[in-house]
Write a structure and sequence with these properties.
This protein is α/β, with parallel strands linked by helices. It is built from twelve helices and 14 strands. A six-stranded parallel beta sheet has the order 4-3-5-6-7-13, sandwiched between helices. It has a six-stranded mixed beta sheet with strand order 9-8-10-11-12-14, sandwiched between helices.
Length: 339
């Protein structure tokens, strides 16, 4: 964990940079810096002492603190910056809460966060990366992006699924374990005609879930029926669900990827009560609603953003030299022994 005085030091450096203080400029007094940084006076004094020891500021008794080495500041301030890149995101607006959470965690650890929405690497990404000490990237990440990120020599961590087959530092949900647990529970309880309401076809987790859905059906000698598979298209999910229930298609259970469509789960809960069927739900967040006995869920309770930032900071500090993938394990609302 980064010491508080070090976080305060980073924030004071940010204040100096944002206000373009030159050599000899007097800094605000420690009470003002305490309010601006959000740290106590004791922590600010310790941070100022560290800045004085590193030669960035000079403290003159009775007069205050002054910027001493402007030229060294730009190099040091780079340590404050992290960059979050969303690559060709299916629904960037859906990440607003995640962005706020990431910004808040970075702020608490003494870092500034920049955000870039991009499709391919380019001038803007190069400029932002060159002024960052580390990068978190998510979205439709291809080999082109991985080769590009490797070439920058800047530490980075990928959050979520990615298309590249290269070995990289990443945090991923264990979607296959999640759907296997839920689907096998439904099959063991007698379901054989299980409809699958999946996410968008271009959404990598949805592709992963569909692949495992097919594998599990095959392993249990259940024939895949394409009429039972619904892929979500933005704005059409509600109509597709209604059309499915009105189509007369024979089914005895429903499996759904909840994603960012909570209203769809509410609709399904109402329909399964009418049809007396089982429902399985795979979700990348905790479901905060009452769940009936015939509903089986697999959710991910751990915070992926916090884990990604933790991994990235270890990469920046050199604590984590080898490449690794961290899989978040699902939490089931039923007992099942899976590995």
């Amino acid at each position: 964990m980064i010491p508080k005085y070090d976080m305060a030091r980073h924030r004071i450096l940010t204040i100096i940079a944002e206000n373009n203080y030159g050599i000899g400029t007097k800094l605000p007094d420690e009470n003002v810096l305490s309010l601006k940084t959000g740290f106590s006076g004791i922590t600010v004094r310790r941070a100022m002492k560290e800045l004085e020891n590193s030669g960035i500021i000079s403290r003159i008794r009775g007069r205050g603190s002054f910027v001493k080495q402007r030229l060294e500041l730009e190099h040091d301030i780079k340590k404050d910056n992290l960059l979050f890149i969303q690559v060709n995101s299916v629904n960037p607006e859906a990440n607003n809460y995640a962005l706020f959470e990431m910004w808040n965690i970075c702020r608490m650890k003494g870092y500034k966060l920049s955000v870039l929405n991009a499709i391919t690497p380019g001038t803007e990404s190069t400029s932002l990366i060159s002024n960052s000490s580390g990068v978190i990237v998510t979205g439709r990440i291809t080999d082109e992006w991985i080769v590009y990120l490797d070439s920058t020599a800047i530490p980075y961590v990928v959050m979520g699924e990615y298309q590249s087959k290269r070995e990289i530092d990443s945090m991923r949900y264990d979607w296959k374990l999640a759907i296997r647990g839920v689907l096998m529970e439904m099959i063991d309880k007698g379901c054989r005609k299980i409809a699958f309401f999946n996410g968008a076809e271009r959404y990598l987790p949805s592709q992963c879930l569909y692949e495992e859905y097919c594998n599990i059906l095959s392993e249990n000698e259940i024939t895949l029926d394409d009429r039972l598979v619904l892929w979500n298209a933005t704005g059409e999910y509600r109509d597709k669900i209604a059309d499915f229930f009105n189509s007369g298609t024979d089914f005895d259970g429903i499996l759904m990827e909840w994603g960012n469509y909570p209203f769809a789960l509410t609709l399904l809960l109402r329909n399964i009560a009418w049809h007396n069927i089982m429902l399985g739900v795979v979700c990348n967040k905790k479901i905060n609603m009452k769940i009936e006995d015939n509903v089986f869920t697999a959710c991910f309770d751990d915070n992926p953003i916090s884990k990604c930032i933790e991994m990235l900071l270890k990469k920046i500090s050199g604590e984590m030299a080898e490449k690794r993938t961290y899989y978040q394990k699902p939490v089931f609302n039923f007992k099942r022994n899976l590995k």
